[in-house]
Amino acid sequence: MSSKKSPTTTAEELQDCPICLETLTISEQVVYPLPCQKCDFNYCNRCVDGFCKSAQDDFQVASDGSRQVKVTVSCPQCRSKYPMDIHDILLLRQAHSLGTSMIRNGELLGDSDLKATQLSWKRDFMAASTRDKVRDAQALYLYCMKGKLDESVVEKEAMIWKTLLEKLPVEVEEEDHNEDDIEGAVSHDGDQSQSSRSTKKSSPRNKKPTVDDTLFQGLHDFISKDEKIYLTELFSSGDLRSLAQAAMILHGILRLSMSGKAAAFAKQNEVPMSKYEMQKQVDQIAKTKASFPLPNHMPGYFLIPSYSKRDGFMTLADQEWDGSIAPPQVSQRVFDQIYGSLYKPPQDEYPKAVVTVQGVRGPIGRLGLRRGDVVTHVNDVEWKGSAIDLQQYIYDCHTNHPQDEISLMVNCTSATATFLKLRNDMVQRSRQPSK
C-alpha cells in the first residue's frame, strides 16, 4: 500500500475544519494541506491566519474575543513545529483557489464575475514579488512533502495557478524613495514649505495592506478583512476607475446587508469581538473621522426607478464646478486646518460644467442621494450631457421600459479620487509610530 496521497477527493468527501467546522476547500484539504509531521491535523486558511496573528501578539484569541493563552506557531493538535513557513502554505492555497475560480476554458474571467476577496487576491498576484514568492513556496513545499504526496499529481494541480500567473499582467512595485512624503501635512505645525514639497511627490503604494474603516459608510461590520483591504486600496488609489469600482462594490454590500446574508457571512468569517474591542473600533473610527474629515459628498452608486415628468422624483441642474471638495458643516474648521492648501484639483479638467442633484423625494429620496451630489455615470457609462438631457433620458426610460432601473454613480470624479488618495496618505502616516 502506498502512503502517497493524490487529489481525487470530491466535494462530497471534503472534511470540515476541526476548529471552525467550516468545510475545507480542495485547495486546503487536498492540494496544499498543512505539513504536520506527527499528525494529519489540517485546518482552513481563516483559522491559520487567526492563529498566526495570535502568535504575533503572543496571545491566543479565545472564542469570546479575549486573548488569554500565550502561543507559538506550531501544530494546534500535537504542538510540533511545522518544517516550513506556514505563510507559504497560505500563499499556495490562495494561488490555487484563485486560479480555480478565475480560469474557465483556459481564459480569465472578467472582474465583474469575481468577488471582492478574489479581486484583492488578483491584484496581489499581479505583483512581481508575489509571483516569485509563490514559485519559491512551491519548490519548498515539494521538498518538505517529499515522500508524502504524489509529486506528479501536485505539479499537475500547480499548473492551475501557473496558468493564472502567465495570463495576469505583471506589476512592478515602486521603490520607497519618498519615505518623508506628507510628513509636513500631518505635523500640523504650519510649515508651508515642507507641506508644499510633500504634495509634489508621488506616494508609493503601501507594501503592508492597510484598512481604513471610515471609508465604508457604516458597513464595516458587513465586510470581511480581505474586502476591507481591497476597498481601501480602490478608494485611495487616486484612479477614477478604481474609485467607481469601489462605489459599486459598496452598493452590492449594502443590498446584501439589507437581506441579512452579508451579516451572517461576516459573523462566521471573523473572530468574535468583545464589547470592549467593538467600542474601541467605534471610537477609532470616530477619532479618525474627526482628525481627517471625509468629503461631504462621497462616491456612491444607486439604482433608481425611472419616472415620468409628472412624478418628478428628482430635480437636476447644471452647475460649474471648480473641483473643490466641500467638507461636512461641522468639520469646516478642522478640514481647512488639516488639508489647507495641500489639495489642489487637477488643473486640466476644472472648472467644468457638471450635473448636480438639487432635490429628491418619493422612492428616490429613500436611497441616500443628497443635494449637491455630482452625477458622473449613468448605467455605468460616463455622463457628458446636460441636466435636461438626463431628465429626458429618465422620462424616455419610463415610457419605453417602466420596469427597468437606472444606475447612477455620483461624485466619482478625478478631484475626489485625488483628495481621497491624499487623505489616505496622511492617515497612514499618522498611524506610524514616532521615531
From TrEMBL:
Gene Ontology MF, one: zinc ion binding
Keyword Zinc: yes
PROSITE patterns linked: ZF_RING_2
RING-type domain sequence ranges: 17-79
Keywords: Metal-binding, Zinc, Zinc-finger
Residue stretches of biased makeup (Basic residues): 198-208
Record flagged with keyword Zinc-finger: yes
Region (Disordered): 172-212
Domain of life the protein comes from: Eukaryota
Sequence ranges of Acidic residues compositional bias: 172-183
Name this protein carries in UniProt: RING-type domain-containing protein
